[in-house]
Design brief:
With 429 residues, the chain is of the alpha+beta class. It has 3 domains: 17-95, no CATH class; 101-189, Beta-Lactamase (2-Layer Sandwich); 265-418, 2-Layer Sandwich (Heat Shock Protein 90), CATH 3.30.565.10. Helices cover 51% and strands 18% of the residues. The chain contains 10 helices and 12 strands. It has helices at residues 8-50, 65-99, 119-125, 138-150, 188-228, 233-261, 272-289, 308-324, 371-376, 383-393; strands at 104-108, 114-117, 153-159, 166-173, 180-186, 268-271, 293-299, 303-306, 331-339, 342-349, 397-403, 407-415. It has a 5-stranded antiparallel β-sheet with strand order 2-1-5-4-3. α6 runs parallel beside α10, α7 packs parallel to α8 (308-324) and α8 runs antiparallel to α10 (383-393). The longest helix has 43 residues, at 8-50.
Length: 429
């Protein structure tokens, strides 16, 4: 027996069904909105991550699928942040290491655009580079092309103009994409040292060969003369002795120079004024014999800390050089004094002077302005080089002023010993 539609019970049932349906619909709508909001939040978070914003995490979204997805996104965010921190740390370490290098390091892409350059690259090449076309000379660009094409390392020494600096260039093809790593090292000083070493060996060999050959020839002459012309033996013997002394001076100067190049000797407090007076006194007779006037001026006590042996060597070589290159009738003056916080030794002559083109080279080993006069007076060509090394070993310097035909002045400046009482000393009781 069915219920009539219009009965109260039917109405109640229909009303209940409608209410239940409405409640279910509302619940579904709310759930759908929450789901959509969570999905949008996750999508927005992923979008921020893609743009580099890893600062915020997703809120927990329950234990359902959305919760698992949110948890996965948060985990991915944490892992990306950790890896980015590691990459940043590695990049900072790499940049610090490359920045500390004296060598220029440049990374180029296949289009020769600069992907990376360390500070030394700008300093060495004189500008911040954007592409390889700014690299000069063209031989470097050619080397880059060779390394890229071969996919391996290529090296070459090139000279930069102006300035004449020598660079050792290594270009390394890194991959099939055309990336090239370029490393440039300034080897100018090393090549200069090599050239000086070669010149030194050549000059030393030449300087030693001359007296050795003379000694050999004189010895043979003495042997022959002992039979045929006994009276000439004494004359040849004197010449033989002179060449032996010359050879001895060269060897002695070479040994002194080698010792000085090894660094400073033992240091004591020295009265430099007394040392200069003693050494200058030795040369007064020699200067007089050469027809020269010689004066010594001492400006009071002058104290320095250094090696007596080496400083005496410095003074002797300066005075000998002045006497050698001053003609009869000229004058040599030696001065020692304190000036500011330094000690000054000055040797002035009225000799032949030094041409401007040679002034920068007079302190080189075996360099002579007038080779014939130097050999005639017994010079070894090492004296001024010894002076320079002694001065520098004592923390000082040597300077030259010269006028051709008017004479030269060599000025050595050394740190003086501070004899003033210390302010930090305790007061007397």
């Amino acid at each position: 027996m069915g219920l009539a539609v219009g009965t109260p019970l039917t109405v109640i049932l229909l009303a209940c069904a409608a209410l239940i349906g409405a409640a279910v619909a509302i619940a579904l709508i709310l759930r759908t909105r929450r789901f959509s909001a969570s999905v949008r939040a996750i999508a927005a978070a992923i979008a921020r991550m893609r743009e580099g914003d890893l600062s915020s995490s997703l809120p927990e979204s329950g234990s359902g699928d959305l919760g698992l997805l949110a948890e996965a996104v948060n985990g991915l965010r944490g892992e990306v942040r950790a890896r980015l921190r590691t990459l940043e740390r590695d990049r900072t370490t790499r940049d610090a290491m490359l920045s500390a290098l004296d060598e220029a390091v440049i990374l180029l892409d296949a289009q020769d655009r600069v992907l990376y350059q360390n500070p030394a690259a700008g300093s060495l090449l004189g500008a911040s580079l954007k592409d390889a076309r700014q690299v000069a000379p063209g031989s470097i660009r050619t080397l880059i092309g060779t390394a890229r094409q071969a996919g391996r390392a290529a090296a070459r020494e090139v000279t930069l103009e102006p300035g004449g600096r020598t660079l050792l260039v290594n270009a390394i093809g890194l991959s099939g994409e055309g990336t090239v790593l370029v490393v440039l090292r300034d080897v100018t000083e090393a090549r200069t040292v090599d050239a000086v070493r070669r010149d030194f060996v050549a000059n030393a060999s030449h300087e030693l060969r001359t007296p050795v050959a003379s000694i050999q020839a004189l010895a043979e002459t003495v042997v022959s003369a002992a039979v045929d012309d006994p009276d000439s033996v004494a004359r040849f013997g004197a010449q033989l002795e002179g060449e032996a002394l010359r050879l001895s001076r060269i060897v002695s100067d070479l040994l002194d120079l080698s010792r000085l190049e090894g660094g400073a000797s033992d240091r004591d407090e020295i009265r430099l004024d007394r040392l200069v007076l003693e050494e200058a006194g030795v040369y007064c007779d020699r200067a007089e014999a050469a027809g020269l006037s010689m004066g010594v001026e001492v400006g009071g006590p002058v104290r320095v800390r250094g090696s007596t042996r080496d400083l005496a060597l410095l003074v002797r070589n300066l005075i000998e050089n002045a006497i050698q290159y001053t003609r009869s009738g000229g004058r040599v003056d030696v001065t020692v004094r304190s000036q500011d916080d330094g000690a000054i030794v000055e040797v002035r002559d009225t000799g032949v002077g030094i041409p401007s083109r040679d002034r920068a080279r007079v302190f080189e080993r075996f360099f002579r302005v007038d080779r014939a006069r130097s050999r005639e007076t017994g010079g070894t060509g090492l004296g001024l080089s010894i002076v320079k090394h002694v001065a520098e070993n004592h923390g000082g310097s040597v300077a030259l002023e010269s006028e051709l035909g008017r004479g030269s002045t060599f000025t050595v400046r050394l740190p003086a010993v501070d004899t003033r009482p210390s302010d930090a000393s305790p007061p007397r009781s």
